[in-house]
Write a structure and sequence with these properties.
By secondary structure, this protein is α+β, with helices and mostly antiparallel strands. The protein contains 23 helices and 7 strands. Helix 16 runs parallel beside helix 18.
């Protein structure tokens, strides 16, 4: 499967500047960033970032970006997805995707991947044809991580699993230079402005209020920068295990998730300890709650959702929804719930015998329990209420909005509630700024207080909303909008 490392510098830049790779969160299709990214690129082709500032500097701006807070798995497990300021994003892409820098990075990754004891399968992949980028990445994970892990049962008798706790927010930005040049060289040349690792570090900190701890989540570019540090971590782990004389093992890594295969429980323990030691050196820590060892290699290599039985969609809707609701009590099968709801949304038919209030109540509570399924659940709701009078549809939307108001962060909910209501009334107010641009496209999503007015004018109009798609956003919500594996 082709990855971004197979591209030349120009193609890699184009890859990072696509809508899907700029922001990986789930948004309705009428939001677009491509035009604004191209405007930012045109400005930065003519001027350096330092020429654009008005005396203030973006690194001194507390948050020049736009954040969307979502629930990850549990009620109190929040994740911040960042829509990076487009000028700062394109500037960072330019630091990485020029011929010299890209060539150096690609060569370094060859070093990371030289020893097959550790196999990384999370380098961003290049999608095929009209398939969605996220779908292509999931298929890559399925083939090279999950299924490859199952195959290791032929060669090994023991397995351990672990991951890095809060990986992205723990990345020490100076370690990017360590990863690209080795730690000794990077520390010796830490004040050298022409060292690639220092260039990336400095321009990355323009995005993060000059902080050295943590990088934002929510873009493929940040996934790639994380891989630079994690690839270096692989080499440190290999070196540590080599000095211990451990040779009979295989480690599969997908981003911050590790699956370790050995033929000795003692080797398993030593490898886990070595990973923990290297993590601490780089400012990480392993997640003790997700660390375990087992001799049940196949069952523990597979996600719990793989064992979900298909639901008979020929039953009455009430029975189908009750079965789905019962499954929604388990946060570990959120991905499987997305799939089941997408399958349901292709076939659901609502009859006069169905109790609409009942069905909307069940699906709404499922989405409340598992925020990850909100796009698919709201698609289901759009099918359920599509034949109801508009007044009643708005009543359901209002009740759902009130229900979710009890949660700490609701901007993701509001984004998709707006998708439900936008075909009826675009003037309904929602709290997130990104929702307000539906009504007024001149609203600024990012903080440009550091930018000279003449350059800000060149970015306008922002065109963050595709008005054609917005005006044709009807009910029900199409499966193409919320099913990851539907072709565009």
């Amino acid at each position: 499967m082709k990855t971004v490392l197979d591209l030349n510098a120009q193609a890699a830049k184009k890859f990072f500047l696509t809508d899907e790779n700029y922001f990986t969160g789930d948004l309705p299709p009428y939001f677009r960033f491509r035009d604004l990214l191209y405007k930012a690129d045109n400005i930065l082709r003519q001027w350096n970032l330092s020429n654009l500032t008005n005396g203030n500097h973006p690194k001194n701006v507390p948050n020049p970006n736009y954040d969307i807070i979502t629930n990850k798995n549990t009620e109190y497990d929040w994740r911040k997805l960042t829509v990076i300021n487009p000028l700062l994003y394109v500037n960072l892409v330019n630091c990485i995707c020029n011929d010299k820098a890209w060539g150096e990075i690609c060569e370094r990754f060859k070093t990371f991947r030289a020893d097959e004891h550790i196999v990384c399968s999370s380098i961003p992949v290049v999608k095929r044809s009209k398939r969605k980028q996220k779908a292509q990445q999931i298929l890559n994970w399925l083939s090279l991580f999950e299924q490859s892990a199952v195959k290791q049962s032929l060669n090994f008798s023991h397995m351990a699993c672990t991951d890095i706790a809060n990986c992205y927010s723990s990345i020490y930005t100076h370690s990017i230079a360590w990863a690209l040049h080795n730690e000794a060289i990077a520390k010796e040349r830490k004040f050298h402005d022409n060292l690639l690792g220092n260039i990336i570090d400095k321009n990355l900190r323009y995005i993060t209020y000059d902080q050295t701890n943590g990088i934002p989540q929510g873009s493929v570019l940040m996934d790639f920068i994380a891989e630079i540090v994690l690839g270096y971590m692989d080499t440190l782990i290999l070196e540590k295990l080599r000095t211990q004389g451990i040779e009979d093992y295989k480690i599969l890594r997908y981003r911050d998730d590790f699956k370790i295969f050995t033929n000795s429980p003692n080797d398993t323990e030593n490898i886990l300890k070595s990973i923990s030691d290297v993590c601490q050196h780089l400012g990480f820590r392993i997640n003790a709650q997700k660390t375990f060892s087992t001799d049940m290699l196949i069952s523990k290599s597979l996600k719990k959702e793989r064992f979900l039985l298909p639901i008979d969609l020929s039953q009455k809707n009430y029975k189908i929804f009750l079965q789905l609701y019962n499954l929604s009590n388990d946060q570990q099968i959120a991905g499987g719930m997305q799939t089941l709801l997408s399958q349901l949304n292709k076939k659901i038919k609502v009859s006069k015998k169905d109790d609409i209030d009942l069905l909307v109540s069940i699906i709404s509570d499922m989405a409340y329990r598992i925020p990850k399924i909100i796009p698919q659940a709201f698609t289901t709701i759009s099918h359920i209420m599509r034949k109801e009078p508009e007044e009643q549809q708005l009543c359901y939307i209002s009740k759902i909005k009130k229900k979710f108001s009890k949660k700490a962060y609701t901007n993701f909910v509001h984004i998709w509630l707006q998708r439900l209501s936008v075909s009826i009334d675009t003037e309904i107010e929602y709290e997130p700024t990104i929702c307000k641009i539906i009504v007024d496209d001149s609203i600024e999503l990012w903080d440009f207080s550091w930018l000279k007015p003449e350059f800000l004018e060149q970015l306008k109009p922002y065109n963050l909303v595709n008005r054609y798609k917005l005006n044709h956003s009807k009910l029900p919500i199409s499966n193409e909008e919320t099913n990851i594996f539907e072709y565009r």
